Amino acid sequence: MPRDALVPALRELWRWVEEHDEPVSFPFEIRFVRSDDIWLSPAYERESAVVAFHQYHRMPHERWFSVCEDVLGAAGGRPHWGKMHRLDASALRPLYPRFDDALAVRDEVDPGRVFANPYLERVLGP
Predict the structure, then answer these.
(1) In DSSP terms, which residues pair with 36 in a beta bridge?
(2) Nearest to 69 by CA among 95, 37, 99, 43
């Protein structure tokens, strides 16, 4: 997400945790990264704050992850296309300015989709 959106988003998530009976077992991992020129990078062309959220594997995670995705997404966050999230290619495309350029490279180097799998077909398209 853009760096300047981090604190308000974290405050909103804190309020949500305070108001709901949702066990959260891990702290956020937050790091700051410089902008880069990698087409499918969440930090593409912007200084960013990267927020990672986790949950213990034996605890329910769906509700908490949905809230985190909603709040961080509304703050301008771009989920890492290779990590767990709910978005598909149609939702990721407007978040990544060079999404279609990356897909053109994929079409060139893997036209038979040797490296495809169901997850990549969801987030990058068929």
Answers:
(1) 44
(2) 95
Burial of residue 119 (CB within 10 Å: 0-12, 13-18, 19+) is: exposed
Contacting residues for 63 by C-beta, under 8 A, at least 6 apart: 22
DSSP state letter for 44: B
Task: Answer for the pair 38, 59: CB distance below 8 angstroms, yes or no.
Answer: no
Nearest Cα neighbor of 43 from 51, 55, 52, 35 is 35
pLDDT at position 84 is 84
Q: What is the pLDDT of residues 82-119, one digit of tens each?
A: 888 999 999 999 999 999 999 999 999 999 999 999 99
Q: Which H or E run includes 66?
A: helix 62-74
Q: Which helix (H) or strand (E) holds 49?
A: strand 48-52
Looking at residue 81, what is its pLDDT?
80
